[in-house]
Design brief:
mainly alpha, 197 residues, elongated, 2 domains, 74% helix, HTH_TetR, HTH-type_TetR-like_transc_reg
Length: 197
Amino acid sequence: MMCGMDRRVARTRHQLEQAILALVAERGLDAVTVADLVERAEVNRSTFYQHYEDKHALLADAVDAAMSADQATLPPVPSDLDDNPPESLVRYLRHFESHAAVYATIFGDHGSPLTVARLQARVADLAQEAIEASETDAFAGMPVRVAAAGLAGSVVGVLGTWIAMEDRPDVETAAEWIWRVLSEPGAQVRRVADSAQ
């Protein structure tokens, strides 16, 4: 009996997640109401509130589910960065490109701070792992978590700006921009070290 309940819950959540992604792409987040969501998902209002506090919580979960479905994971940052972004970063950005209308709304002036915060936290975790693994001196005197948060803010800033561009460059260009944000601190330290020799 519990398995049936779990399937029903999963199906309801999936219906609501699909509804918000479709409606945000069509109308933008501000124009979407809970009434719109329950009508599109074919559930009742009380069911919505059994699962979500508001549309922002639903949107954050819907984005998580879409990223998981697309297998869109940000690659770990290698300790030895070369000049070219990895193909895995390009694949990650393809997810954003394929849902550009949704992400342009999320990152917009009336977007979803909760969804952006979740994304930034994921990037910060990866950045922290990479900094610790690399033993870089690029952030000497700074707590690793602070450095990771700075990198994550930069990456998410580039991502949000890119996705909102009217004449948006291709994902390869965006990957190059993000890779430069990630690799430049280490490159600066190497330049200083080389010039000191």
